[in-house]
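EI: anyone free to look at a 323-residue chain?
SC: sure, send it
EI:
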Amino acid sequence: MTAAAPSTATTSNVWRRVAAVRTPDGAELHATIDGSGDAPVTLVLAHGWTLAQAAWDDVADLLAPRIASGDLRLVRYDQRGHGRSTWGSAPDVAPISIDQLGHDLGEVLDQLAPAGPVVLGGHSMGGMTIMCLAAARPQLFGDRVRGVALVSTSAGDLNPEPRNRAEKIRQRLTPGALTVALAGARAIERIRRLLPPGHPRHQKMVRDLLYGADASEEMVLAGAEIMHASTVRAFTVFLPALGEHDKRQELAALTNVPVEILVGDSDKLTPKRHSRQMADVLPDAVLHVVERTGHMLTQERPRLVTDAIERLLAAAAADRAAA
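SC: here you go
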């Protein structure tokens, strides 16, 4: 079920409306839809942990001419418990999982893009969300879903358990990249409760964990403000879910569509080995390792991300024209 506000034209002549996607367990997912309902292709973008749909703003701005021309319809939404979306009953009855987010994405497609070709883009936890949808509803991929962009994300092994005493000792002495990153994320969570996003110490923590060498102060501040608006509950509830996420053996549906994988060479949260692992099991995927870039590729290199998405959109439109 969708509750929509009246459509309005933005200053760039892109028609926009907002909608609430209601899930079976009672969550309401806040979505923003730009563009005409009869556009030939719909792009659905899913954001990462402790972020919101605003993390895709730079990419959306670059896509605005396509939307204004009627060639594209864009759907962005806040993951449950993030942004303006509610939690539903799941955290009260069972631990939340990334699989649940995959089901949520399915509801977004069913309610907001029920017909026509779709391209999916996911950043970080948003990419994991797409993998969970592919595992749960593989029939969508190659039929409704015609392309996937996986940005700064992972199929699993994010927080591996040590298998023996030697590995336990090694993990304590030389913790893996995500262990370090999660420790840093916890520090950011503590500091953000005490200091505003504009404080130099706050920004230094965010920059060190999430951004590459070329990130501007404006980028870091924008990202810090998005994360600061997230709740402590979103941080704590989703943290174990990320560690449990594992779809390394369940990516088969993604072999049915073009896939573009992008990762920064200095990404600390989902290091480039995770993207290479995905590329190894998706032999037709295109892997981009971006220099001097961290985890926030959608902000740091929006043109590169947009170019990858536009290649997927062009392929999806060509498939539709040939059908």
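EI: Strands lie at 2-4, 8-9, 15-22, 28-34, 42-46, 73-77, 118-123, 145-151, 259-264, 286-290.
SC: 👍
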